[in-house]
Amino acid sequence: MSAPEEEQDEHAPLWPPLLLTLGVLVLAIEARHQKLALTALATFVLLPTVWRVLKRRWVRGDVIRGLGMGFIASHVPLLLGACTTLNRPECRIHVCMDGVLAGAPYVPWAGVLGTLLYWAWTRSPGAGHHSP
């Protein structure tokens, strides 16, 4: 096999499981079965993510960059919580902490999701160059 074909196979999507999961998701939504729909949606997102994390070619610095992306992503729930208080006039000048604290339970999950998404869906900076 040539190098471009090998690279293409490494990043090829998992069509059969993704289409099966999408079918289950559509049927669950039509049947109004909320737990099955949420499970199918989570599987639809996590299946290619876990596959790419396990199959990717790791290079130096990937772990640090992924953890940095997780740190950045962990602040998103706090920012969204603060933005939800902007419609109240007293919170426009001073940040109301109730909105920020409402997003606090989601901080670890957003960090893990940001790290996984970075590792799964981005190419390494040196992916085009093969180092000895």
TrEMBL record:
The chain crosses the membrane at residues 12-29, 36-54, 66-87, 99-121. Keywords: Membrane, Transmembrane, Transmembrane helix. The keyword Transmembrane helix applies. This is Lipoprotein.
